[in-house]
Design goal:
Layout (H helix, E strand, L loop, with lengths): L14 E4 L3 E5 L5 E6 L2 E4 L4 E4 L3 H18 L6 E4 L4 E5 L2 E2 L2 E8 L2 H7 L6 E11 L8 E2 L1 H6 L5 H23 L3 E14 L6 E6 L7 E5 L9 H4 L5 H11 L9
Antiparallel strand pairs: 1-2, 2-3, 3-7, 4-5, 6-7, 8-12, 9-10, 9-12, 10-11, 12-13, 12-14
Helix pairs in contact: 1-6
The protein binds guanosine-5'-monophosphate (5GP).
């Protein structure tokens, strides 16, 4: 449990950044940040806006579970501790300006771009990269762009591939255990600098929730993720709650 003085929502410092689904505040200790998870939902580069009631609580708790599990298999992450229903304390990192997308089954923009039917399994998992830039709509880029534009160097890219494959192997198994196919997901990595600012290591950052992955029920193929909102399918609150229930995440609120 977090120390008493870090509980609730009073320990937040100055607001640093307001994103679409999260707000970042200065943490109580230098080198830390508080991620506050909102119920706001956006899609298609914020052209569609709405609310998924309770989503922030589920995404906060699911990110906690995933990050802790990944730490157990040796993946370094920015997660420190959950502070309240909607807040978690994380390490401050310099975000690598890439969206790392992993696909196990064809869906979404890949299905559209290449004219392949959604649901087609891939021979092997695919790792794609987008430039993290909302004003450009996060365009797909090649590894060569990353190196030529110096968005990351060769050693970092190799590490990103290695960690991402391990994360995918682990999470596919974790979701399969509760009857869910992990179709695809998006990761972000950050550079954690030493105190002297000289060296750094790469760690997993951001979040892992139904906002940034596709989850299909293994038996019915029912969508249990943000596509319910993006595609006006309805039932998004129930879908997020169902994923939490299967993963054993308690939705009892403490605040
Ligand atoms: P697609 O490229 O098919 O739209 O997305 C592939 C996967 O990455 C999906 O699971 C989707 O949720 C996630 N993803 C892609 N771009 C973003 C983004 O900008 N924000 C979030 N939260 N997830 C994204």
């Amino acid at each position: 449990m977090p120390p008493e003085n870090l509980k609730g929502e009073t320990s937040r410092g100055e607001k640093l950044y307001e994103g679409k689904a999260k707000t970042l505040y200065k943490g109580p200790v230098p080198g830390t940040i508080i991620q506050y998870f909102k119920d706001d939902a956006t899609a298609f580069n914020a052209q569609k806006k709405g609310t998924i009631t309770g989503k922030g609580i589920i995404n906060n708790k699911m990110t906690e579970l995933v990050m802790k599990n990944l730490e157990h298999i040796g993946i370094p992450t920015h997660f420190l501790e959950r502070l309240s229903d909607r807040e978690q304390l994380v390490r401050k990192v310099e975000i690598v300006p890439l969206e790392v997308i992993v696909r196990n089954i064809v869906a979404g923009t890949m299905a559209k771009r290449l004219g392949i039917e959604e649901g087609t399994p891939l021979e092997r998992p695919l790792i794609e990269f987008s430039l993290k830039d909302d004003s450009l709509g996060d365009p797909l880029i090649a590894e060569e762009h990353i190196l030529s534009l110096d968005l990351a160097d060769e050693a970092e890219l190799a590490e990103i591939f290695d960690m991402t494959r391990q994360i995918n192997d682990f999470l596919r198994g974790m979701f399969a255990g509760v009857g869910i196919n992990l179709v695809d997901f998006k990761l972000e990595y950050g550079r954690l600098y030493d105190d002297d600012g000289e060296g750094y290591c790469l760690i997993l950052a951001d979040e892992f929730s139904p906002d940034n992955c596709r989850l299909w029920d293994m038996v019915t193929n029912e969508k249990l993720d943000k596509d319910r909102f993006r595609r006006d399918l309805g039932g998004e609150v129930d879908a997020y709650r169902e994923v939490a229930r299967r993963l054993g995440i308690s939705l009892e609120t403490a605040d």
